[in-house]
Write a structure and sequence with these properties.
The complex is a heterodimer. By secondary structure, chain A is mostly helical. Helices cover 81% and strands 0% of the residues of chain A. Chain A has one domain: MetI-like fold (Orthogonal Bundle), CATH 1.10.3720. The two termini of chain A are 32 Å apart. The radius of gyration of chain B is 25 Å and the shape is elongated. By secondary structure, chain B is α+β, with helices and mostly antiparallel strands. Chain B is built from 8 helices and 20 strands. The chains are: A mainly alpha, B alpha+beta. Magnesium ion binds next to α1 of chain B.
Chain lengths: 257, 368
Amino acid sequence: MRWLPTFFLMGAVAFLILPILIVIPMSFSVGSYLAFPPTDWGTQNFQALWVRPEWRDALLYSLKVAALVTALALPIGTAAAFGLEYASERWRSVLRMFVLLPLVVPLILLGFALYVVYAQLGWLNWTPGLVLSHLSLAIPYVTLAVGVGVQALDRERFLAARLCGADQARAFRDAILPQLYPSLMAGGLFAFVASFDEAVIALFIASGENSTITRQMFTSLRDRIDPTVSAVSTLLLMITLSLVLASALRDRKTNRS
Amino acid sequence: MTEPQSTKLRSGALLEIENVGVSFGHTKVLEGITATIKPGTFFTLLGASGSGKSTLLMSIAGFVTPHKGTIKLNGKVLNTVPIHKRNIGMVFQSYALFPNLSVADNIAYPLRLRAKSKAEIDKAVADALAFVRMEGFGDRDTAALSGGQRQRIALARAIVFEPDILIMDEPLSALDKKLRDDMQIELRRLHDRLGLTTIYVTHDQREAMTLSDEIAILEKGRIAQIAPPQDLYNHPRSAYVASFMGESNLLRVTRRAGGGFSLNDTPIQSDHHPTLEDAWLCARPEKLMVSPQPGQADTVFDARLVEKVFQGESWLLECLLDDDTRITVRASDHGGSIVSTVAPGETLQLGLLRRDAYFIERTEEVSP
Ligand SMILES: Nc1ncnc2c1ncn2[C@@H]1O[C@H](COP(=O)(O)OP(=O)(O)O)[C@@H](O)[C@H]1O
Ligand SMILES: [Mg+2]
């Protein structure tokens, strides 16, 4: 009976994954509308992604924003994880609530609120404004992921490094940071995906030249069903899957050693 | 650290701890700790769990800041020196090696921080590896090493930069018994070759006696006694020390009019003449003789055997005195001894030499 839980797990995974996988054959269809199953096969949709500037620019813009968000969320979220770890027992749970708040607030509410504020400030369709809004989603993920690593830290290594002659910063770099690499990888991945996949906030505050790929997908589906969307979906799927896979493989490697 | 013979050139540093107190919040963890650790001494802090041993070690290292008192290294006040400039080598129970570095890089780490040349580093690392008998392990991953090997590498890393003192916090307690016994002898041998002032923390009294030149017994954040192992064992200053250092019988004795003490009206012959009103006779189980020959013991008294247990190298006898006080005797079954034939219920005689009869002050609390 040991295989029974595994069987259920596989079933659940299939149920969750299969609908997503449908976009892959769809993206290789040829024609001016979305078809499943495809009648003719080709890479026309993928070419459009690169040839048509509205798609290409949106993709590059999304990658840029996600990279910026990741680069900023990692140090801030890590600092917050340490802050939570060293906070007094009494305040820890309250502080953790605050850090995680952006994840539980309905996105549509966040998007609308940001729209009102950004309109006042003149920050609409402005990259730093979008990065800032995505940070509020990405930082909690980093704090969660790195917090697990911080709790499992072997602090004696830090003390050992200090007595070996390392000052605080050097000891942190040499003795603490290497222990956090796996959780930083996971946190960075979550942060990147959180920004890259985000569509609701972008719908409110990022349009025109500063349109993200998800927003572009949304508007192109609303106006007319553009088959390029399926190619974008496949691409997003591949990017996300390869990041997750890379991080899983890395974990396996560090677990073995 | 080059040739084993020439290592003694470095005569270790003098460490003076003066009236050091540490508290965490409102709890006082250490109070008025004073100790002088002479150059080259192997000094052990011994005490029950929670007695403050690690806290004292951490105060020396600088991770804990005492609220009062001074710690001086070679006459220089250490309290305000930043941790990384204290030049103290430390070995942790968890080894605290860097798993992302090879064995050689672990040992080289303190030297790299001191910006030594590559040639210097290579030589020092090779010497340190040889010193802990781990030649040829330089390229290994630390993950591939056994517990004992990791501890040797941790030791090599702690001494490679020629620290002024070496401190160790229960470095052997994660190892199994056999390996621990071997490492104790080896640590002592390494210390004799290095001549480094060493402060060692353990809760194991046998380990402390095996290793140390001097032992400080910590009792609830205070020093109960500082003495060389033999002194501590033979002349414990308090009941706490007596019961912490090996087994002991604490027998209530009464002061005699003409001086000295008696046990249930038997006068105790002793070289020890303390001016105590209320005293215990501290008699070690292995110092008590079972039915001694006439003239062999200085004091002889009766006891009734209650229980007898064979423990391999010796027998453990549980007896009762006339006033129903329990007394434990450890006797070896050498030729001519009646230990193997005597049966529970029988009365036997116990003997004690003058030099083994030691008195300590009687207090309310008995055991640690
Ligand atoms: N950082 C700390 N904060 C509060 N209490 C502590 C801290 N470190 C140690 N203590 C307390 O101080 C006492 C002594 O601890 P420690 O020095 O670790 O004892 P030992 O090493 O002898 O077992 C213990 O009661 C422990 O709970
Ligand atoms: Mg301790």
